[in-house]
């Protein structure tokens, strides 16, 4: 095994193990909290869906990387390649949409009650289900072209392939089809990430102004404490920054390698880190910092 494969294996194992454990812990925590409540909160449903999307990304990317790291040439096959690559791409889109919905719901939740945005606040968990269903429909359709162009390495003349994806290969497609689906993916990413940035920025600004009012009303001896709303603000900002970093760098790298046909080991190692990074790190951000905005915020 050369140094490139050693580095690839280290990156793979250091992300997939903690990633699976973190998402399982997050799911268990959400399940325990929901079991104690008579009515499921909308934010819990969104977080469970985000954890589910993360697990799809980790498992599908993990299978693909497992075939690469341990040289299982016929491990996936044609159907396995189509399934893993398709699910990984679809789950990536679901993660984008779900993170956006999480940020928007939180921003609406803590907005002043006199504003128009409070009317958009979901009151029950059932009210967020249509959005999640819409996310599935959109991402299933956007990723559908992969089912026609992904082939297993053992059943393909590799001279006709244009992209290597862990013992799976992508066949060349018509330029109009390629640009159509790339445009849809780019449009989806820009819309949802712009909404996420706007809502998170609005929430951070609101919490910052609220914190200044609290410090003005109370004595200065409380200034060194860390109010729950400030911790919630940092949680959202860290999660948003983590999301934007991993997904935009991954998008740029995928765009570059797709059109320059670059398959060097450095690019593959970076892409593996980016594909698994957000899905592996985000549950620990959610666990270490309570994303739920405290009810005491509305009491002041």
UniProtKB/TrEMBL annotation:
Pfam annotation, one family: V1R
Annotated keywords: Cell membrane, G-protein coupled receptor, Glycoprotein, Membrane, Pheromone response, Receptor, Transducer, Transmembrane, Transmembrane helix
Gene Ontology biological process terms from the UniProt entry: response to pheromone; sensory perception of chemical stimulus
Protein topology in the membrane: Multi-pass membrane protein
Record-linked PROSITE patterns: G_PROTEIN_RECEP_F1_2 (PS50262)
Entry's transmembrane regions: 7-26, 46-72, 93-111, 131-150, 162-184, 230-249
GO CC annotation: plasma membrane
Location(s), subcellular: Cell membrane
Alphabetical list of InterPro entries matching this protein: GPCR_Rhodpsn_7TM (IPR017452), Vmron_rcpt_1 (IPR004072)
Start and end residues of each G-protein coupled receptors family 1 profile domain: 22-286
GO molecular function: pheromone binding; pheromone receptor activity
Domain of life per record: Eukaryota
Family stated for the protein in its record: Belongs to the G-protein coupled receptor 1 family.
PANTHER family the record matches: VOMERONASAL TYPE-1 RECEPTOR (PTHR24062)
UniProt function note: Putative pheromone receptor.
Name of protein: Vomeronasal type-1 receptor
Organism of origin: Mus musculus (Mouse)
């Amino acid at each position: 095994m050369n140094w490139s494969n050693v580095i690839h294996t280290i990156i793979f194992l250091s992300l997939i193990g903690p990633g699976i454990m973190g998402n399982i812990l997050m799911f268990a925590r959400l399940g325990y909290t929901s079991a104690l409540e008579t009515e499921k909160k909308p934010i819990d449903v969104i977080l469970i869906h985000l954890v589910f999307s993360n697990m799809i990304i980790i498992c599908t990317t993990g299978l693909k990387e497992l075939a690469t790291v341990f040289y299982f040439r016929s491990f996936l096959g044609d159907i396995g390649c189509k399934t893993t690559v398709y699910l990984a791409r679809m789950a990536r889109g679901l993660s984008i949409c779900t993170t956006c919905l999480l940020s928007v719901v939180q921003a609406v939740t803590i907005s002043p009650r006199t504003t128009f945005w409070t009317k958009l606040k979901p009151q029950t968990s059932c009210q967020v289900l249509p959005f999640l269903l819409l996310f599935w429909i959109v991402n299933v359709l956007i990723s559908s072209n992969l089912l026609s162009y992904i082939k297993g390495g053992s059943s393909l003349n590799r001279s006709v392939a244009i992209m290597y994806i862990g013992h799976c290969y992508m066949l060349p497609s018509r330029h109009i089809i390629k640009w159509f689906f790339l445009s849809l993916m780019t449009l989806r990413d820009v819309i949802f990430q712009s909404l996420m940035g706007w809502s998170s920025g609005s929430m951070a600004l609101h919490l910052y102004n609220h914190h200044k009012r609290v410090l003005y009303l109370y004595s200065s001896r409380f200034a060194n404490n860390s109010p729950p709303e400030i911790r919630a603000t940092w949680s959202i900002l860290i999660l948003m920054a983590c999301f934007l970093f991993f997904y935009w760098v991954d998008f740029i790298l995928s765009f570059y390698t797709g059109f320059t046909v670059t398959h060097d080991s450095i690019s593959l190692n970076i892409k593996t880190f980016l594909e698994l990074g957000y899905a592996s790190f985000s549950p620990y951000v959610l666990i270490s910092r309570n994303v739920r905005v405290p009810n005491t915020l509305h009491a002041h």
